[in-house]
Amino acid sequence: MKKKRLALLVVGAMLCSALVGCTKTYATDLMDGVKEGTPTEVQVQEETWEGMQDFSVKLLQTTCDEEENTLVSPMSVLSALAMTANGARGETRAQMEDVLGGSVEQLNGALAGLGQEEDSPLYLANSIWFAEGGGITPNPDFLQVNADCYRAGVFEAPFDQTTVTDINRWVKEHTHGMVEEILKEIPRDTVMYLINTLAFEAEWENPYENSDVWQQAFTNQEGKVQQVSMLHSEEQFYLRDDQAQGFMKCYQGGRYAFVALLPDKGISVLDYVEGLDGQQLKELLEDPTSVPVTVTMPKFESEMEVDLREVLKEMEMVLPFDSAQADFTGLGTSPEGNLFINQVFHKAYLEVQETGTRGGAATAVEINCEGAFQEPEDQKVVTLDRPFVYLVVDTSSMLPVFMGTVLSV
């Protein structure tokens, strides 16, 4: 008899609470015996932050489009895959660690504390859903580490259309409406979902007034001139490397900042992105020049949906996708066969406007079962009136929450 294909989706982007706020669900709480504890304290090494930064840059490089705006949430993808890696063993685990930038223990330590500050603009949520009679026995240690590090609630549901509604409602609520849907239907053989969501809503430290906004020309990647709403301000953190200049603009509280990098004339956004590496970007962000900067940037809204399977394989995460050789026995067991990653879906949304920035993201890992500042300089001017690269970063680690390119507005 042909082996039954069982699908497991790990849907991710950052985490914070379990199942809350749903009007009505048909799910049963399975957290009895799996109580949230305090994560084992881990001293996150500098090499891990650099590794995650490098993953972030490679993710942008492999998704960057020559013709369309690009938007990804490295923090979301890292979180989803790091959670999945907790269930990986042997060479599968080692390969995931190599690509993600650190050991699973280091990744857990780095990601567990994100968005935990009071009144943080970064909102994180996580939940795990099992199909009733789904034919998979989850590893209790896997559930425990997700409860401890990621505060994941665990639920059993019928995995019919009511569960689709429940999950989509949960995702929409925890992304504050910015990702409205992650599932259209649940395949007959799906047995498990790990669902992470990320929402970011921050006001500028120095917001724009109406008088700071006016129409101005933006020349897109095709050389066509668009008249768009431009935001004008005086900033104080200037960035410069050998191929681009830019600025850093803080959100309220100073923990998070918007970064824009404008390649020098004659250098395309794609070429600039291709030349980046994680260490170079981290060093650039950690060492801005304190100098007045006259900034002009467009209001913009960006949205992207991408399948990361081939992207991750290009980044040399290959073994976890191998149906015969992948080892996810730490996640759980199934009498139907071996667990492996089948697909990785990613959705992201970001809006930059006068008052601040709001964005949401979700990442879905589908697993199947089968067989300091420098001295001031002169006034600087950064006018984003042509294609540019941007980031929203956590300034404590310089880990990107979002990364993208604007080719047209």
UniProtKB/TrEMBL annotation:
<dbReference type="InterPro" id="IPR042178">
    <property type="entry name" value="Serpin_sf_1"/>
</dbReference>
<dbReference type="InterPro" id="IPR023796">
    <property type="entry name" value="Serpin_dom"/>
</dbReference>
<feature type="signal peptide">
    <location>
        <begin position="1"/>
        <end position="27"/>
    </location>
</feature>
<dbReference type="GO" id="GO:0004867">
    <property type="term" value="F:serine-type endopeptidase inhibitor activity"/>
</dbReference>
<dbReference type="InterPro" id="IPR042185">
    <property type="entry name" value="Serpin_sf_2"/>
</dbReference>
<keyword id="KW-0732">Signal</keyword>
<dbReference type="InterPro" id="IPR036186">
    <property type="entry name" value="Serpin_sf"/>
</dbReference>
<dbReference type="InterPro" id="IPR000215">
    <property type="entry name" value="Serpin_fam"/>
</dbReference>
<comment type="similarity">
    <text>Belongs to the serpin family.</text>
</comment>
<protein>
    <submittedName>
        <fullName>Serpin family protein</fullName>
    </submittedName>
</protein>
<dbReference type="GO" id="GO:0005615">
    <property type="term" value="C:extracellular space"/>
</dbReference>
<dbReference type="InterPro" id="IPR023795">
    <property type="entry name" value="Serpin_CS"/>
</dbReference>
<dbReference type="Pfam" id="PF00079">
    <property type="entry name" value="Serpin"/>
</dbReference>
<feature type="domain" description="Serpin">
    <location>
        <begin position="57"/>
        <end position="409"/>
    </location>
</feature>
